[in-house]
Amino acid sequence: MPDSPPPPTSSPRRLRLSIGAAIVLALVVLSAAVGLGLMRGQAAPAESVPLATDASADGGGTTGELYVHVLGAVEHPGLYVLELDARLVDAVAAAGGTTDDADLAAINLARVLEDGEQIIVPTVGAAADVPGAVAPSDDRIDLNAADQAALETLPRIGPALAERIIAWRDENGRFQSVDDLLAVPGIGEKLLAGIRDGVRV
């Protein structure tokens, strides 16, 4: 009687189970790696999102204009429009710079300007002018600093002539001498003679 073939072993089944388990394990590891990578990929951009956007919206500072009236020892006295953060040196530059007899030691070129102010650059030997002020030892009216009320205290100088004197000063700069009053409309030799002792430059 011929020998019967040996019964089949279960090794192929075990092999198939081992391959299936390896594939499942590989998929689990791969899924974990992908999931970890996605988590890292989402976390990284969150740390680099720029938040400082308000600075550009502010415009970087205040903008605007201010008006100043520049008189005295400058090339082109007049009214000038400057930036809000302008300084006295900017006003002098806008007026064409100073004349040769300007006393720069009497003014602070670095001073910040204010809207509506009047700037008078004095000449060498003259004190810095303050509107309406006179020297302590001299009670004469300063033609380059007096306001309308002070000018009206002079003999025969009424509101109209006082306004003309100030208008001439605004348009032409400082009076260089008392005789310059003759250039003001309405002031002649006789009127000048009557007020000469009461004024100065």
Could you explain the architecture of this structure?
This protein is α/β, with parallel strands linked by helices and 201 residues long. The chain is 37% helix and 11% strand. The strands form 2 sheets. A 3-stranded mixed β-sheet has the order 2-1-3, sandwiched between helices. Strands 4-5 form a two-stranded parallel ribbon. Strand 1 and strand 2 form a beta hairpin. Residues 41-62 and 128-137 have low confidence and may be disordered.
Distance between the termini: 153 Å
**Sequence of strands across the biggest β-sheet:** 2-1-3
Biggest β-sheet, characterized?
Answer: 3 strands, mixed
Element-level helix/strand string: HHEEHEEHHHE
The count of helical stretches stands at: 6
Give the overall silhouette.
rod-shaped
- The amount of beta strand, in percent, is 5-15%
Compute the gyration radius: what is it? 45 Å
The percentage helix is: 25-40%
Number of strands: 5
